[in-house]
Amino acid sequence: MSKIDLKRELKHLYKPPARSVATVDVPAMRFLMIDGQGDPNNSTEYAEAVEALFSVSYVTKFSVKRSLSAVDYSVMPLEGLWWSDDWSSFTSGDRSAWKWTMMIMQPDFASDDAISEAIDQVRTKKSLKAIDLLRLESFTEGLCVQTLHIGPFSDEGPTIERIHTYIESKAKLRGKHHEIYLSDIRRAAPAKWKTVLRQPMTVG
Q1: How far is it, in rounded angstroms, from Cα 110 to Cα 176?
Q2: Is the dihedral of CA 19, 23, 25, 31 positive or negative?
Q3: Region 96-104: what's the mean pLDDT?
Q4: What residues are paired with 200 via a beta bridge?
Q5: CA distance 75 to 64
Q6: At a CB cut-off of 8 Å and minimum separation 6, what does 183 contact?
Q7: By the 8 A CB rule, do 73 and 6 touch?
Q8: Distances in whole angstroms, Cα of residue 103 to Cα of each of 49, 138, 158
Q9: What are phi and psi of 88, to 5 degrees?
Q10: Is 144 helix (H, G, I), strand (E, B) or coil?
Q11: What pLDDT, in 10s, does the model give residues 59-74?
């Protein structure tokens, strides 16, 4: 059985520096996605979306592991695309105004059929309201700026502003604010939470 560490293979995308910003070109990747809106801290809709994403991703992982391809891999971290009608809500921390797409990247060797079957299995075994909102989609970000934020989500404002200031000095903001959650917030202290913050940009 082969074992694959996807985060290590994609280190330039999932392990950016914390003390500086980095420019990356993000290729097309497949994600399981669910859309929603509002503050995730008090949203039942958000919690249900995250549960559905992880449930299907883990069933897919074990299905691939047991298949003829026999590939073992770690489920990728939860990611979120965030946007609002007002960009200032990102630096002010007004998450109630944010809209979101939560998602988990799926490896190329996990077939569409395997993921579809995983969704059916989860639908049968669990009563998850968000399961029927899931979709599998290819997503391309292209040229982006990113950095690693260490600390609670509520302290992200200055880090996001640093990214925006960097981009605006040479290009333009575009697309949606992107966060990748590297820490298990159920176990780690908020001061040690690690989150990749990414913002697409347009040059010229």
Answers
A1: 26
A2: positive
A3: 90
A4: 144
A5: 12
A6: 192, 193, 194, 195
A7: yes
A8: 9, 11, 25
A9: -65, -15
A10: strand
A11: 999 999 998 778 999 9
